[in-house]
Fold these 2 entries.
Entry 1:
Amino acid sequence: MKLHSIKLPHRKASAEMPTLKTLNPPRVVISMSQHGGVPCTPVVNVGDQVKTGQIIGTSDAVISAPVHASITGKVAAITDVINIAGKRNTAVVIETSHRQEMHESVKPPAVTDRSSFIDAVKTSGLVGLGGAGFPTYVKLNFDPKENSIDTLIVNAAECEPYITSDYRALVESSAELIGGIKLLMKYLEIPKAFIGIESDKSKAISMLTELCRKEKGISVQRLPSSYPQGAEKIMIYNVTGRVLKEGGLPMSVGCLVMNCSSVIFINDYLKKGIPLIRRRITVDGNIVNKPLNVFVPVGTQLSEIIKLANLRKTPDRVIFGGPMMGSSVYDPEMPVMKTTNAVLFFEGAAALAEPTPCIRCGRCVRACSLNLMPTELESAYDNKDIERLKKLKVNICMNCGACSYVCPAKRNLSEKNQLAKILLRNGGNV
Ligand code: SF4
Ligand code: SF4
């Protein structure tokens, strides 16, 4: 079976730039909804002094992840913010102190078996760093009697243009990646692991291949450089040949898929106990003078990143994430989330293109790796035709953006599919 894919320009100008040390913003705005699932409730009050790594938000819900202070300072406010998905949620605002200290709770967790390993991942606040933001411990907490997982797939594709934060993690922390893979294999009893990586990332491939020579059951799987190589379904098929059925989870085909930065984080967390309080982000775009990668505390605001970006012009568009699947941001106060892997700045026609009528060229259909019908989906969404949207399987759309990218009429096909899924979830109410 050959899956459709598209070729994208890479534009990965920051690939060979070592990651800059952590930015120290004067304040952070930490959303209590950093993950898929139930948002956290703040456990601190305005005026409290908090230290780096201290828990500031928790939830008893099964699908959630604790939120930690990313800097040391004073809680200046607990307020409502609009998050990247356009939803209102609570955020804890911390103003920095001159002295940055780790909280006393930050220490390596005691991990001896599967259960304590999963508990540690839960306490760490880890969510899928590839962008999905699903709490990782939930994914790891499968019942081995019901789901026999024989393959760990480390997703190191990073197939979107511009973004190099995963690539920098691979070359700067390749030994830590192998360490994280070994921990997952050991505690979850998974016999083999593949690092799925696009073949053009030759430096990372040779470093990892060398390290894998000494390891049993871990190997590097070179994949074609195409889009959307990093989509879970595509990755599973290209690495193992297994087909994930509609609505199925990777465990239904014996696979656990983890983003490479998440795996490195697990290794580091078990060694040092520092929870998920910072992100490595790529800062790039067509008006950035010097593309770079930098560690930023979770909650760092866009206005601080703009200072760092050294822009040539005022941007027409700012994107958190990649140009294919990221979200446009309009508020300079928008904070970096746990899931943010890039902040991109653009100006010009590409940033402002308006849709024109469909010319029925069929390119969008040929671009879709899931064989969906983007034009039909668009029409069904415009007519709010719920039954047709279901029949056309809008729910399996990955919102990869490939259809929108190839469309000469610049129609917002992927965006409409996203809205259509929300429409279905709301039972047809807009
Ligand atoms: S956004 Fe959806 S419909 Fe468009 S190419 Fe991707 S999977 Fe297919
Ligand atoms: S690619 Fe654009 S113009 Fe071509 S059929 Fe699809 S929606 Fe219409």
Entry 2:
Amino acid sequence: MEKVSVVGLGLMGTALAEAFLRKPLTVMVWNRTPSRCNPLGAQGARIASTVKAAVSASEAVIVCVSNYAAADELLRVREVSAALNGKTLIQLSSGTPKEARDTAAWARETGAQYLDGAILAYPSHIGSATAQILISGSPEVFRQHKELLEILGTPAYVGLNPGAAAALDCAGLISTMTSMIGLIHGIALCESESVETEHLVSMVNAFLPTRAELNREMAERIRAGKFDDPQAPLKTWAGVARHFVHIAQENHLAKDVPSFIAGLLDRALAEGLGEQEISSLVKIIRPDEMDKPNRSESV
Ligand SMILES: NC(=O)c1ccc[n+]([C@@H]2O[C@H](COP(=O)([O-])OP(=O)(O)OC[C@H]3O[C@@H](n4cnc5c(N)ncnc54)[C@H](OP(=O)(O)O)[C@@H]3O)[C@@H](O)[C@H]2O)c1
């Protein structure tokens, strides 16, 4: 029977171990607070007394703790590093791309294969196809462990760079969260004028298909560095953003969201981007690009 070890049994680690236990697998678990192992033991998991024992027991070792610093405390000790030689370490703790790259380099030194993952799901979704798991690292190692990862959800291979999963996770969350925060501000604005928020929700939802097209167009513009034929130049958007600030002032709303938007656009104006398409804002976000007129020309 195939064996898998799960190190870290918080809300997410427990859900991962439970999904494995529903399959004919030998599941070895370890957690810093040993009592969290007991419910899994009752479901058939084997409980390791040390991290080294958990790592030694299986070919695939999944780590899911609070962060990489916690994972490092557990893994980067001599006897555990030695036990990892020849194993596959699958890091599912959240972290930064650099932490993922550093961990991949360290794993290589120990003689372990390494995959880095980001879970885009709640623990209750684990074990169903709705649980998306981004995976980066060697495509060959991914292929070897795809079936195992499919027990947890829908794994999506996103690239050789071990930091790719963490980067995409962060990029997706920033995009979602800024949009959510914008909606929350919009709802407060509607309420301040006794406008039914249902109108706002319908309006925003009706725009979603167009938004999807614009997302593609913006990514393509940024990839090509092509900002010079706007339907609405950045200076027009900056004018609109100043209205946001005035409305917040007049209606006694917090100015954080409108000021953030207006501030970014004003910086872009000061950099001379007023006549360009709004996605040229990327030059403010990566200022070392300001001198490059056209990225597609420079490659
Ligand atoms: N929960 C979610 O919805 C969700 C979704 C996507 C991704 N994630 C990611 O999954 C990871 C785990 O999240 P979680 O929800 O399981 O968190 P959690 O319930 O707070 O559990 C944290 C786990 O990390 C362990 N831990 C923390 N510091 C440690 C240390 N210094 N040494 C050893 N073990 C340590 C804890 O051990 P003890 O039990 O001994 O405290 C526990 O097993 C995080 O990186 C999180 O961002 C979570």
